[in-house]
């Protein structure tokens, strides 16, 4: 005679392993998401200054090849004022952040600043990499 001592079959799914995998993937995304940066790559100059708290801002980027970008949109020196006028609402509280590669001559950057001033922009800031402070 044969004995049946086996456990009864359950119709439930064991979700513990699935939840562990989902949490592991979530942790990977949480760690890697801040490392991803968007925008145009430039080598910023270094400066000792406090960071600008921006409510709204327009980023103007100048690459080492003297390519100008307003936000993500490319522009050139000749059409910069027209392109800037299309992006800027005229609000005096809007900050204009200039991200210029450190190899760009000062005069070229000042042409951009002058164009922003001609359009009425007053709050202009320059993005820099913070330097290490010796203490």
What does this structure look like?
By secondary structure, the protein is of the alpha/beta class. The chain is 28% helix and 19% strand. It has three helices and seven strands. The chain has helices at residues 16-32, 80-87, 106-118; strands at 46-47, 57-62, 68-70, 73-75, 95-100, 124-126, 129-130. Strands 4-3-2-5-6 form a five-stranded mixed beta sheet, covered by helices on one side. Strands 1-7 form a two-stranded parallel ribbon.
Described by strand count, sense and barrel closure, the largest sheet is: 5 strands, mixed
CATH class of the domain at 46-130: Alpha Beta
Distance between the termini: 86 Å
The dominant shape is: elongated
From the alpha carbons, calculate the radius of gyration and give it in angstroms.
27 Å
CATH architecture of the domain at 46-130: 2-Layer Sandwich
- With strands numbered from the N-terminus, the spatial order across the biggest sheet is 4-3-2-5-6
Q: Helices, strands, pairings?
A:
Elements: H1 16-32, E1 46-47, E2 57-62, E3 68-70, E4 73-75, H2 80-87, E5 95-100, H3 106-118, E6 124-126, E7 129-130
Parallel strand pairs: 1-7, 2-5, 5-6
Antiparallel strand pairs: 2-3, 3-4
Keywords summarizing the entry:
Nucleotidyltransferase, domain 5, elongated, 135 residues, 3 helices, alpha/beta, two-stranded parallel sheet
Write a short abstract of this structure.
It contains three helices and seven strands.
